[in-house]
Design goal:
alpha+beta; five-stranded antiparallel beta sheet; globular
């Protein structure tokens, strides 16, 4: 899954994908030049983390551009 957010001309990209390094999954988001990656073998845990981040970003003024 891939999502894009925008805020005052800034872009934020977030992706959940299978991890190439483990049997689990990765949650990666880029904000400007910074790349953040969180890994988990538990898909439900990563989904909960995604919901936390989405809520945080919306509170910070980010607008989701895509589903």
């Amino acid at each position: 899954m891939l999502w894009f957010f925008e805020r005052r001309g800034e872009r934020l990209k977030c992706e959940i994908r299978p991890s190439p390094q483990t049997a689990g999954f990765e949650l990666e988001w880029t904000e400007g030049d910074q790349v953040h990656i969180e890994r988990s073998d538990d898909a439900d845990e990563l989904a909960r983390r995604w919901v936390e981040l989405e809520q945080k970003w919306k509170q910070e003024g980010w607008i989701k551009l895509s589903e």
